[in-house]
Write a structure and sequence with these properties.
three-stranded mixed beta sheet; 228 residues; 2 domains; elongated; alpha+beta
Length: 228
Protein backbone atom coordinates (compact mmCIF):
# COMPACT_ATOMS: atom_id res chain seq x y z
CA UNK A 1 0.00 0.00 0.00
CA UNK A 2 2.88 2.37 0.73
CA UNK A 3 4.34 1.57 -2.67
CA UNK A 4 1.02 2.30 -4.38
CA UNK A 5 0.77 5.61 -2.52
CA UNK A 6 4.16 6.70 -3.83
CA UNK A 7 3.55 5.41 -7.34
CA UNK A 8 0.26 7.30 -7.60
CA UNK A 9 2.16 10.57 -7.08
CA UNK A 10 4.61 9.55 -9.79
CA UNK A 11 1.65 8.94 -12.10
CA UNK A 12 0.06 12.31 -11.26
CA UNK A 13 3.30 14.16 -12.00
CA UNK A 14 3.73 12.23 -15.23
CA UNK A 15 0.30 13.50 -16.26
CA UNK A 16 1.47 17.01 -15.44
CA UNK A 17 4.52 16.59 -17.67
CA UNK A 18 2.32 15.37 -20.53
CA UNK A 19 -0.03 18.35 -20.19
CA UNK A 20 2.85 20.80 -19.76
CA UNK A 21 4.33 19.60 -23.05
CA UNK A 22 1.06 20.52 -24.76
CA UNK A 23 1.08 23.99 -23.19
CA UNK A 24 4.57 24.60 -24.56
CA UNK A 25 3.31 23.62 -28.01
CA UNK A 26 0.95 26.62 -27.94
CA UNK A 27 4.12 28.66 -28.49
CA UNK A 28 6.48 26.28 -30.28
CA UNK A 29 4.02 24.33 -32.43
CA UNK A 30 0.51 25.82 -32.05
CA UNK A 31 -0.94 23.81 -34.95
CA UNK A 32 -0.46 20.57 -33.03
CA UNK A 33 -1.09 21.83 -29.49
CA UNK A 34 -3.58 19.59 -27.65
CA UNK A 35 -4.03 17.44 -30.73
CA UNK A 36 -6.19 14.45 -29.80
CA UNK A 37 -7.45 16.11 -26.61
CA UNK A 38 -11.12 16.85 -25.93
CA UNK A 39 -12.15 20.51 -25.54
CA UNK A 40 -15.34 21.18 -23.58
CA UNK A 41 -16.38 24.24 -21.60
CA UNK A 42 -12.99 25.90 -21.98
CA UNK A 43 -11.13 22.85 -20.64
CA UNK A 44 -8.83 20.48 -22.51
CA UNK A 45 -8.82 16.89 -21.27
CA UNK A 46 -7.05 13.77 -22.46
CA UNK A 47 -7.85 10.09 -22.29
CA UNK A 48 -6.18 8.11 -19.48
CA UNK A 49 -2.59 7.12 -20.23
CA UNK A 50 -1.43 3.78 -18.82
CA UNK A 51 2.25 2.97 -18.47
CA UNK A 52 4.81 0.91 -16.54
CA UNK A 53 4.90 -2.65 -15.25
CA UNK A 54 2.45 -1.77 -12.48
CA UNK A 55 -0.09 -0.31 -14.95
CA UNK A 56 -0.04 3.20 -13.53
CA UNK A 57 -2.67 5.50 -15.00
CA UNK A 58 -2.84 9.27 -15.39
CA UNK A 59 -5.05 11.89 -17.01
CA UNK A 60 -5.11 15.68 -17.07
CA UNK A 61 -7.28 18.74 -17.54
CA UNK A 62 -5.92 22.08 -18.78
CA UNK A 63 -7.64 25.45 -18.89
CA UNK A 64 -6.50 28.96 -19.78
CA UNK A 65 -7.62 30.82 -16.66
CA UNK A 66 -5.83 34.16 -16.73
CA UNK A 67 -4.21 36.81 -18.96
CA UNK A 68 -1.57 38.96 -17.30
CA UNK A 69 -1.02 42.69 -17.87
CA UNK A 70 1.06 41.95 -20.96
CA UNK A 71 -1.65 39.81 -22.52
CA UNK A 72 0.21 36.55 -21.86
CA UNK A 73 -1.96 33.48 -21.12
CA UNK A 74 -1.58 31.48 -17.90
CA UNK A 75 -2.66 27.84 -17.82
CA UNK A 76 -3.89 25.68 -14.96
CA UNK A 77 -3.08 21.97 -15.14
CA UNK A 78 -4.93 19.48 -12.93
CA UNK A 79 -3.91 15.84 -13.05
CA UNK A 80 -4.79 12.57 -11.36
CA UNK A 81 -2.49 9.60 -10.97
CA UNK A 82 -3.74 6.14 -10.06
CA UNK A 83 -1.82 3.07 -8.91
CA UNK A 84 -3.35 -0.36 -8.23
CA UNK A 85 -3.20 -1.77 -4.70
CA UNK A 86 -2.29 -5.44 -4.62
CA UNK A 87 -3.00 -7.85 -1.79
CA UNK A 88 -5.98 -8.26 0.50
CA UNK A 89 -8.74 -5.65 0.71
CA UNK A 90 -7.83 -4.29 4.09
CA UNK A 91 -6.06 -1.27 5.53
CA UNK A 92 -2.53 -2.26 6.39
CA UNK A 93 -1.38 1.03 7.90
CA UNK A 94 -1.77 2.58 11.33
CA UNK A 95 -4.33 5.33 11.91
CA UNK A 96 -3.08 6.27 15.39
CA UNK A 97 -1.71 9.78 15.84
CA UNK A 98 1.12 10.38 18.30
CA UNK A 99 4.86 10.97 18.71
CA UNK A 100 5.65 7.55 17.24
CA UNK A 101 2.61 7.09 14.99
CA UNK A 102 1.86 9.11 11.88
CA UNK A 103 -1.69 8.06 11.12
CA UNK A 104 -0.79 6.70 7.69
CA UNK A 105 -4.22 5.29 6.93
CA UNK A 106 -5.84 8.68 7.62
CA UNK A 107 -3.66 10.29 4.96
CA UNK A 108 -3.37 7.52 2.40
CA UNK A 109 -6.95 7.00 1.31
CA UNK A 110 -7.52 3.77 -0.62
CA UNK A 111 -10.40 3.05 -2.99
CA UNK A 112 -11.31 -0.55 -2.19
CA UNK A 113 -14.78 -0.72 -3.74
CA UNK A 114 -15.72 2.82 -4.80
CA UNK A 115 -13.97 5.99 -5.94
CA UNK A 116 -13.68 7.82 -2.63
CA UNK A 117 -13.04 11.24 -4.17
CA UNK A 118 -16.13 11.20 -6.40
CA UNK A 119 -18.27 9.96 -3.52
CA UNK A 120 -17.01 12.70 -1.18
CA UNK A 121 -16.41 15.70 -3.43
CA UNK A 122 -17.94 14.91 -6.82
CA UNK A 123 -16.04 14.29 -10.08
CA UNK A 124 -14.80 17.89 -10.31
CA UNK A 125 -14.11 18.39 -6.60
CA UNK A 126 -16.79 21.07 -6.28
CA UNK A 127 -19.23 19.07 -4.16
CA UNK A 128 -21.64 18.53 -7.06
CA UNK A 129 -22.84 15.26 -8.59
CA UNK A 130 -21.51 13.03 -5.83
CA UNK A 131 -21.95 9.37 -6.64
CA UNK A 132 -20.79 5.87 -5.76
CA UNK A 133 -18.60 4.91 -8.69
CA UNK A 134 -17.29 1.32 -8.45
CA UNK A 135 -13.60 0.66 -9.11
CA UNK A 136 -12.48 -2.49 -10.90
CA UNK A 137 -9.81 -3.19 -8.27
CA UNK A 138 -8.38 -1.50 -5.16
CA UNK A 139 -6.43 1.61 -6.05
CA UNK A 140 -4.82 4.78 -4.74
CA UNK A 141 -5.35 8.07 -6.58
CA UNK A 142 -3.51 11.33 -5.98
CA UNK A 143 -4.04 14.74 -7.53
CA UNK A 144 -1.63 17.49 -8.52
CA UNK A 145 -2.32 21.05 -9.67
CA UNK A 146 0.23 23.10 -11.62
CA UNK A 147 0.28 26.67 -12.87
CA UNK A 148 2.09 27.26 -16.18
CA UNK A 149 3.24 30.88 -16.11
CA UNK A 150 4.76 32.55 -19.20
CA UNK A 151 8.19 34.14 -18.99
CA UNK A 152 10.21 35.87 -21.68
CA UNK A 153 13.81 34.91 -22.48
CA UNK A 154 14.80 38.59 -22.69
CA UNK A 155 13.68 41.27 -20.27
CA UNK A 156 14.20 43.96 -22.89
CA UNK A 157 15.93 44.49 -26.23
CA UNK A 158 17.85 47.45 -24.79
CA UNK A 159 18.39 48.10 -21.08
CA UNK A 160 19.90 51.21 -19.54
CA UNK A 161 20.61 51.77 -15.86
CA UNK A 162 20.75 55.55 -16.20
CA UNK A 163 20.01 58.06 -18.94
CA UNK A 164 19.43 56.75 -22.44
CA UNK A 165 19.85 59.23 -25.30
CA UNK A 166 18.68 56.90 -28.03
CA UNK A 167 20.36 55.71 -31.18
CA UNK A 168 19.90 58.79 -33.31
CA UNK A 169 17.11 59.92 -35.61
CA UNK A 170 17.92 57.32 -38.26
CA UNK A 171 17.96 54.39 -35.84
CA UNK A 172 15.12 52.07 -34.82
CA UNK A 173 14.46 49.02 -32.66
CA UNK A 174 12.44 46.20 -34.14
CA UNK A 175 12.25 42.39 -34.02
CA UNK A 176 11.72 39.37 -36.22
CA UNK A 177 10.80 35.71 -35.99
CA UNK A 178 13.69 33.55 -37.16
CA UNK A 179 11.54 30.48 -37.82
CA UNK A 180 9.79 32.17 -40.77
CA UNK A 181 12.86 33.52 -42.52
CA UNK A 182 15.77 35.89 -42.23
CA UNK A 183 15.67 39.47 -41.03
CA UNK A 184 14.13 42.01 -43.40
CA UNK A 185 14.28 45.69 -42.38
CA UNK A 186 11.35 46.62 -44.63
CA UNK A 187 8.86 44.47 -42.70
CA UNK A 188 8.57 46.89 -39.77
CA UNK A 189 6.92 49.56 -41.96
CA UNK A 190 4.77 47.25 -44.07
CA UNK A 191 1.53 46.28 -42.27
CA UNK A 192 0.45 44.13 -45.21
CA UNK A 193 3.40 41.79 -44.70
CA UNK A 194 2.46 38.63 -42.79
CA UNK A 195 5.61 39.08 -40.67
CA UNK A 196 4.67 42.61 -39.60
CA UNK A 197 3.29 41.48 -36.22
CA UNK A 198 6.64 39.87 -35.41
CA UNK A 199 8.48 43.12 -36.13
CA UNK A 200 6.55 45.07 -33.49
CA UNK A 201 7.95 43.50 -30.31
CA UNK A 202 10.68 46.02 -29.54
CA UNK A 203 11.31 46.92 -25.90
CA UNK A 204 13.53 49.57 -24.31
CA UNK A 205 14.01 49.57 -20.54
CA UNK A 206 15.40 52.57 -18.64
CA UNK A 207 15.88 52.32 -14.88
CA UNK A 208 13.62 49.24 -14.89
CA UNK A 209 10.82 51.15 -16.60
CA UNK A 210 9.85 49.72 -19.95
CA UNK A 211 9.04 51.80 -23.00
CA UNK A 212 7.51 50.68 -26.30
CA UNK A 213 6.52 47.30 -24.93
CA UNK A 214 4.40 45.12 -27.16
CA UNK A 215 3.22 41.57 -26.87
CA UNK A 216 5.28 38.99 -28.74
CA UNK A 217 3.86 35.50 -28.40
CA UNK A 218 6.81 33.91 -30.14
CA UNK A 219 9.32 34.82 -27.47
CA UNK A 220 7.36 33.39 -24.58
CA UNK A 221 8.02 30.06 -22.97
CA UNK A 222 6.57 28.52 -19.84
CA UNK A 223 7.69 27.62 -16.38
CA UNK A 224 5.48 25.62 -14.07
CA UNK A 225 4.81 25.48 -10.36
CA UNK A 226 3.62 22.31 -8.69
CA UNK A 227 1.15 22.03 -5.83
CA UNK A 228 0.56 18.71 -4.08
Amino acid sequence: QVRSWKESLDAAETGGDIAYAEVRKTILDPTHAFSGWTYTGGIYSNSPVTYGQDSLSTKAKVDLFYYDANGNPWYRIRTTGTAPVNGLKRVGMDDRMGPNNRGDSLLRKIDFNYDRFVATYGPNGDGLNKALVPVTRPQVTRRVELIAAPITPFEAAIKAGGTFYGLGSAAYVDSYRSTVGGYDASVKTNPSDSRYVDARAETVEINRQRLHKRRNGYQKHYQHKRHH
